[in-house]
Design goal:
The complex is a heterodimer of chains A (206) and B (291). Chain A has helices spanning 12-17, 35-46, 89-99, 112-121, 133-139, 149-152, 180-190, 192-205; strands at 3-7, 23-32, 59-61, 66-69, 75-79, 103-106, 124-127, 140-147, 158-173. Chain A is of the alpha/beta class and 206 residues long. In chain A, 49% of the residues are buried. Classes of the chains: A alpha/beta (206), B alpha+beta (291).
Chain lengths: 206, 291
């Protein structure tokens, strides 16, 4: 297992060199986006309308944070761990293709469609520890912009955040078609008979 | 102070404790996993979990941004002065807690958007489980359970012919299928019997039992132990990195069933298993449950 510290946006070479199972820490700008933000961004794109951010320059973070305004009326992060990425499987491949995002951050992994898009368009998926919302908040140094707040609400809108040494992110999907989560799901399935055996023993003994 | 105000303040406090303080037995379980894990990837994850939970306690901030759809379990004594008003009082406390702690506004309506205060404009949320008990007190338990682990929970209306074996296999399958998605290490609540709604409620309520609690029926206690062992055969581990412990405890609530039905409810909790309780007497004395 290798550990790297990288600046955002990742270069094409960096994306290519990262392998499934590596861990990375990233510094630079990221943007939160969940179900509705993905959907809305793609709808605007289809209509040919202008988007408020350039997703190519930013890492996408599957996250719906708790934010509050400080006394100077400036937004600050209270808690900002990742949300389950699987829900964005509906949109992610299209999103990567249309916007050229090269780093997706979330938790729980993603499926075959995203894996194929990562391979085709040169992107990776990094898993942050689910629920570790305060660690993440500490690694977020500044709230740079907020978009679609009135439209989508606090958890669903776009928060552009400056992060420093954000991680560790486990490279769960690399740009070569490898998906740790799919492989491990298969391994988990294969271990079911062993698990069932334990139940059989106890039921047999009763 | 007026009793109403005491109930509001105490409810805000249990919501705060629930969101910010991982119950000690859960924390101990996480620390134990950290101390017994050799896998490098699993260690990175479990270390983050333990660090995050400590930070939350120190800074009194929510350990996870997903503070859930709020639900309250209320046990109302025969002679406690408030009865039907309790729901409105607890709604008021929820609104206050949402700004004070803060909690994430998590109640979204297809037509009206996010309510911004964790109250459902149609009156369904927060959700109340109400029970009637003898005595003068009210006991309120707040649960701030995240959506990620709820999304991987399951209801199985199995064929009775599959028997207990089928029911237990369904539990293991549910954990296997959840994999990394619901933020393991998990606590697993199982409800068997009753009906389609009852088994889910029984499963969810079993998450409130103390870690290590075993069913008083030793036959069921044995099944809880076996299920825990079986689930830990699965190569999931902290955050699904493929190694280390997957499940910290399993509890089963077994109820009678209709002869034609075998309902099985499986409710998973993420590592951030959050709840907190308070007892308030008719005189306004307050006693928080320490976990």
């Amino acid at each position: 297992m290798a550990i790297y510290r990288l600046n955002l946006p990742l270069s094409k070479d960096e994306v290519k060199s990262l392998k499934m199972g590596d861990n990375i820490y990233v510094s630079g700008n990221i943007v939160t986006a969940r179900d509705d933000a993905h959907k809305h961004a793609l709808e605007l794109y289809e209509k040919g309308e202008k988007l408020p951010v350039n997703f190519k320059e930013l890492a996408i973070y599957h996250c719906g944070p708790i934010m509050e305004k400080d006394q100077q009326e400036k937004w600050k992060v209270v808690a900002a761990g990742p949300t389950t990425s699987g829900r964005m499987e509906l949109f992610q491949d299209n999103f990567i293709e249309k916007f050229g995002t090269s780093l997706i951050i979330g938790k729980g992994g993603m499926g075959e469609r995203t894996t194929a898009a990562c391979r085709k368009f040169g992107a990776i998926y990094g898993m942050y520890t689910g629920g570790a919302a305060l660690l993440a908040a500490n690694q977020i140094k500044e709230v740079l912009e907020v978009h679609w707040f009135d439209l989508l609400g606090m958890p669903e809108c776009l928060w552009v955040l400056k992060v420093e040494d954000f991680g560790p992110l486990l490279v769960g999907i690399d740009s070569h078609g490898n998906n740790f989560f799919t492989l491990n799901k298969e391994k988990t399935k294969q271990s079911l008979p062993n698990a069932y055996k334990i139940i059989d023993e106890v039921l047999g003994a009763n | 102070m007026l009793l109403k105000q005491i109930i509001i303040d105490s409810t805000v406090e249990i919501l705060r404790r629930s969101a910010t303080k991982l119950p000690k037995p859960v924390m101990d379980a996480m620390v134990e996993i950290k101390n017994t894990t050799n896998d490098e990837g699993a260690l990175l994850q479990i270390q983050n979990i333990v660090d995050d939970a400590f930070l939350a306690m120190e800074e009194s901030k929510p350990m996870c941004q997903d503070t859930g759809i709020i639900s309250f379990t209320i046990e109302v004594g025969d002679h406690f002065p408030f009865k039907s008003e309790l729901k409105d009082i607890l709604k008021e406390a929820t609104i206050q807690a949402t700004t004070d702690i803060p909690l994430r506004p998590n109640v979204v309506d297809f037509f009206n958007g996010n309510s911004g205060n964790n109250i459902d404009s149609r009156g369904f949320l927060p959700y109340f489980y109400i029970d009637l008990i003898p005595g003068n007190d009210v006991k309120i338990t707040a649960m701030t359970k995240g959506g990620g682990s709820s999304n991987v929970s399951k209801l199985g209306m199995l064929k009775p012919g599959l028997g207990l074996k089928g029911a237990l296999q369904f539990v293991i399958e549910t954990v296997a299928e959840a994999g990394p998605s619901g933020c393991p290490p998990y606590r697993v609540g199982v409800g068997i019997g009753g009906g389609e709604d009852i088994c889910m409620t029984l499963a969810k309520k079993s998450l409130l039992k103390p870690i290590g609690y075993r069913n008083t029926d030793h036959k069921i206690a044995e099944l809880e132990e076996a299920l825990m062992k079986a689930c830990n055969e699965l190569p999931i581990g902290p955050m699904g990195v493929g190694a280390g412990k997957t499940v910290i405890d399993v509890n089963i609530n077994l109820a009678g069933r209709h002869p034609a039905s075998l309902p099985v409810g499986v409710v998973l909790s993420c590592w951030a298993l959050r709840h907190s309780s308070v007892k308030i007497t008719a005189e306004g004395d307050v006693e928080f449950t320490e976990y």
